[in-house]
Specification:
Length: 227
């Protein structure tokens, strides 16, 4: 199997990379990984046959839809309704987060990971696998995309309804999630979100990208509370 092939049966649906590791997952349910090759100006040798540079993980029972990395872990989500958390050194699966619908997106932050499955959004404890909070029916239709601020305090969701929601996540005395703003920039599903303060970028099947200064959303939220 060549993971670079783009045919319908082996399409790549998710990628994640940092300075030491590149992972890709697709419709075959495999996670393919490449480690940095010292001295390679392109960091990774995607043609490598060296097991020290290339590996495969397979425990999902459906297509991989999303992936992420942090310093010690690999994260993968699938239409098999699970998110799997892997140790990036031993390549062993550490935890399985079971959902009630297809998983579309995930975003880790420190000791928690947010996931989107069906129309719902969840926050989990990475180490214990405990569900800390759930946003039921976050969108009309599926919740397709997630983004999170560097502090973890702000969580953004994009959905099938073309809307983007901004939530505030607090972890004092338990995990609480409160919606503080809503924005509808698209006429089609929002499939991708990216956030770098203060800019939130969204991409939709309507063929458009949308850009907003989140400070405006925060101001709108404060103004609505004072009325």
């Amino acid at each position: 199997h060549d993971p670079r092939r783009g045919d319908a049966q082996r399409a790549i649906r998710a990628v994640a990379a940092d300075a030491r590791l590149l992972v890709a997952g697709g419709t075959d349910g495999f996670i393919h990984g490449w480690r940095t090759e010292d001295g390679n100006p392109h960091l990774f040798d995607l043609k490598a046959q060296n097991q020290n540079l290339e590996f495969r993980l397979w425990e999902h029972e459906g297509p991989i839809t999303c992936a992420a990395l942090d310093f010690t872990r690999i994260y993968s989500g699938s239409w098999d309704m699970t998110v799997r958390i892997w140790d990036r050194s031993t390549l062993k699966c550490l935890n399985v987060l079971v959902h009630s619908d297809w998983v579309w997106s995930l975003v880790p932050h420190e000791s928690t990971v947010a996931t989107a499955a069906g129309s719902d959004v969840y926050i989990w404890d990475i180490n214990t696998g405990m569900q800390l909070a759930v946003i039921n029916n976050a969108h009309v239709g599926n919740s397709y995309s997630l983004a999170r601020s560097h502090t973890g305090k702000l969580l953004f969701t994009g959905g099938e309804d073309g809307a983007i929601h901004m939530f505030e996540v607090t972890t004092n005395l338990g995990c609480k999630v409160q919606k503080i703003a809503k924005w509808i920039p698209h006429t089609g599903p929002v499939f991708s979100l990216a956030f770098e303060f203060p800019w939130l970028v969204s991409a939709s099947s309507d063929g458009k990208l949308s850009l907003i200064d989140v400070r405006k959303l925060l101001k709108m939220s404060r103004d609505s509370l004072t009325k």
